[in-house]
Amino acid sequence: MADHAFHRPGPLKQTNKAHKTGRHRSKGAIDNALKGKVGLKAISHKHKLQQRKEQRRNQMNQLRKNKRDEVLQQKRQLGGQNTAPFLVCVLPMHEQIDANSAIAILQSCDSEIVVEKSPSGVVYMNLPRFKQRFAFVIPPVGRGNELLVLDYLKVCDTTLMLTSAAFGDDEIFDRWGQRIFNMISAQGIPTPVVALMDLESINPKRRTAAKQAAQKFISKLLPEEKIMQMDTSAEGLNVMRRIGGQKKRVLHNVNNRPNLFGDIVEYVPNGEMGTLKVTGYLRGQSLNVNGLVHIPGLGDFQLGQVDAPPDPNKLDKSRDGELAEVRLLDRSDPAKQTSLQSENIPDPMDAEQTWPTEEEIEAAQKETKKTKLIKRVPKGYSEYQAAWIPDVEEVEGQDDDDEDEDMSGDEEDEDFMSCDNKSFEDECEKRDSDTEEYLDSLSITSEAAVNDEKYDQQMDFQEERETLKKLQLARTDQLWPDEIDTPLDVPAHERFQKYRGLESFRTSPWDPKENLPSDYARIYQFKNFDRTKRRILAEAKEFEGILPGLYITLHVINVPASRWNAFRSAHLSDNVIVYGLLPHEHQMCVMNVVLQRIPDSEVPLKSKEQLIIQCGYRRFVVNPIYSQHTNGDKHKFERFFRPYETVCATFYAPIQFPPAAVLAFKVNPDSSLALVARGRLLSCNPDRIVLKRVVLSGHPMRINRKSATIRYMFFYKEDVEYFKPVKLRTKCGRMGHIKESLGTHGHMKCYFDSQLRSYDTAFMYLYKRVFPKWNYEECLVRSAEHSRQEHLTEAHRNSKQLDDEAMEQ
């Protein structure tokens, strides 16, 4: 038998690289390691049933069908004969556009359309072709009516924005249109539809270019929207089809609550109080008759009863004879009605208190006797002028939050009153004389001088000086954040007795219930705000009360007659908007909102500066404090809200459950409102810790290998011993601590982890918790902001007049 020859590999045999599975084992390696072993989880838990292909396909079809049914149900909740009509806000984006002309085009879009107009100005259109109903409202347009436009858009389903091609390609939105668009985009635009008018009035050769230019402009603001032409009846019908068929944009803040746009409003007085009857279509969620309602400009009220009058805007009125009478839907129960109490009444005897001893009473009397009356008189004031300044009582050892600023700020304030400074008067006289000589030399006509005087009269130079000073302080705080000079006349351990050092700002503990102000006894707090929000919103959707879509009349009880008269005199339209409040939404709490500066606003906002805040359906005046919007349980206090920054504002306000859009307004010198920031509601949590930081700086005098002698941080030996446990940091990143005091003038020996540089600076970080001030003021009348602005303007004018009289004297 012949031997078989086998192939033997030679030295040049190819060897492939082994497969690298990384840090984990491959599937083959795992199978080899197990060798048939069964895992413990596989024995103790049931295997998931493996669905076949037909079962998976059937499950996907069921999910698709459920989602389609849900979308159809949401569509059928609006526009039908038995539901609320589509509420459309016709908003001209140019002051010269007449919105009534657009309404006339829509009224003539179909021969079978039924048009009815209510006494308040709402135009109802019934379109049998689409089997849909529409309601069109036109808000007042023009400068000063921005807040009314915002209130209208909160409850509308669609926004019909009107533009015109007659003003050219550069005037698609005028100045007012740009201003109002910034506001409504920050609040949320409900289902926008853009219509271009007056395209037939221009040259036919330029129509295509004009429409393309308008589309290009709109695409930058609303990328998903396609502009529609509206000049003829057929184009108006296309707009109606678009409004009734497009997908609606949901504004969750309004959709989570019942809301009603009042079409018919009647006030029945009963002495000083009265009942306000508001009739309209209920939208959003179901209404609880025992809950509270909020009317922007009037406040929070209770409901007496809810009626259901016959719907006057139905297309099929054959059964009006059967349902002509007004039906009572529900009446409130006084035992179940929500109380209007918004603040907690603290018990003064709740805290543990002991009676003071005689020694403590005598010590307190001595401290009271130490008070002295001081009078702060600006530089340059005469004795006669100083006599008009009231005395200010100052208690020794008094500590105020304003003292946390630079101690030299008071002297700067006195020097800054340049209108009352003699040196400033001399400079003004010299400048006037030089100006007169210059005008005479150039033979300038008297008309130019008159124009200059008129220009100067229109300018508010006091506001300019305040803005300049604010810019300088913000710039200083940006260059040297939180750094202040240690006072020479007051020991540092007394000046900063409320501050403490932290080992680490991120990880060091800080008790949120420690040293709370007395105002915290007046607010309400949830154990877990997020969990409460989810529960209340879920209960609001499942609540079976007065269903949305019905035409109802709300009886709002106990409305003061004086407040209603002020509201009617300041209100430019006959409509009233009513919101149903969720549980706890009338109780006071600490509100935290995230704000982002508007690009057009460039002046820094100082902390505790007055702002007008619109949060969801409420509008109020507060003085917020700002902090960094960061993760963690502690947040650094910000002295200024600078342009292009995002911060978290904290203030006292009624509870409101997010999501909610937030707009911040500031009063201009000309009594108008300027949008300075936009954002969203973060939470209503009083436990948010806002820490104000103070940085004390020192300079090395002698530098050794591991130690250095630091001076100018303290000026007393007691201060060095008091702040010895606090860590030191340097500008170059060195870490150290105080070893001992040298001498009696604040010099100290400090050890660092490495040798200091000669140009290095030692810092000590101190922190204290700050709280907002209780200065919440609700805007009870829509024009209350304007009256407040007029009051402030009048005060500025009076102070300016007094300054002029003082200069003449």
UniProtKB/TrEMBL annotation:
Q: Which residue stretches does the UniProt record annotate as biased composition, category Acidic residues?
A: 391-417
Q: Where in the cell is it found?
A: Nucleus, Nucleolus
- Region forming the signal peptide: none
For bias type Basic and acidic residues, the affected ranges are 422-433, 790-803
Name under which the protein is recorded: Pre-rRNA-processing protein TSR1 homolog
- Record's superkingdom? Eukaryota
Pfam families xrefs: AARP2CN, RIBIOP_C, Tsr1_G-like
| Compositional bias of kind Polar residues | 335-344
Question: Where does this protein come from, organism-wise?
Answer: Drosophila arizonae (Fruit fly)
Report which gene this protein is encoded by: LOC108614209
Domain Bms1-type G: where?
84-249
Q: Which UniProt keywords apply?
A: Nucleus, Ribosome biogenesis
